[in-house]
Amino acid sequence: MLERPTGVTVLAILYVLAAVFFFLAAAVSGYLAQVASTTQLGEIPYAELFFAFSGIFFSITGTVWLITAYGLWKGRGWGWWLAVIFTAFGLISSLLSLPKGVVGIVVLGAILYYLTRRHVREFFGV
């Protein structure tokens, strides 16, 4: 098996860190859903429901990012595909939010460029 490229290691670690933040956001959303049900925050229409669904969304997203990190770390082809898809979606989102999306375009463009280099694709077998 090929040795994992350093950039792939960095990306996998960044995906894990992002997943941790999503899980933290899920925990905060769950807490806010609880608070909304017992305080004046609950007077805002659908506040409790909003926070509950936000928590579910963040949990699912964190799980998918953690799975992607695993795929990147282990050199699985599906991990590469997930990373490419997420990066492409982020790039499109940044393009749609110009001019404030310039930093995202540069960073995500560089990541997408890196993921499509021959030695990286060979590591993933794609």
Describe the protein.
By secondary structure, the chain is an all-alpha fold. The chain has one domain. The protein is 81% helix and 0% strand. It is built from 5 helices and no strands. The longest helix has 33 residues, at 6-38. It is elongated and about 55 Å long. The two termini are 14 Å apart. It is a multi-pass membrane protein. It is found in: Cell membrane. Keywords: Cell membrane, Membrane, Transmembrane, Transmembrane helix.
Radius of gyration: 18 Å
**Overall outline:** elongated
Give the helix/strand class: mainly alpha
Number of domains: 1
Keywords: Cell membrane, Membrane, Transmembrane, Transmembrane helix
GO cellular component, one term: plasma membrane
Subcellular location: Cell membrane
Membrane topology: Multi-pass membrane protein
In short:
This protein has 126 residues and is mainly alpha-helical. Helix content is 81%, strand content 0%. The chain is built from five helices and no strands.
Write the layout of secondary structure elements.
Blueprint: H1 6-38, H2 47-74, H3 77-96, H4 102-115, H5 118-124
Helix pairs in contact: 1-2, 2-3, 3-4
Transmembrane segments: 13-35, 50-72, 77-96, 101-115
Subcellular location: Cell membrane
GO cellular component, one term: plasma membrane
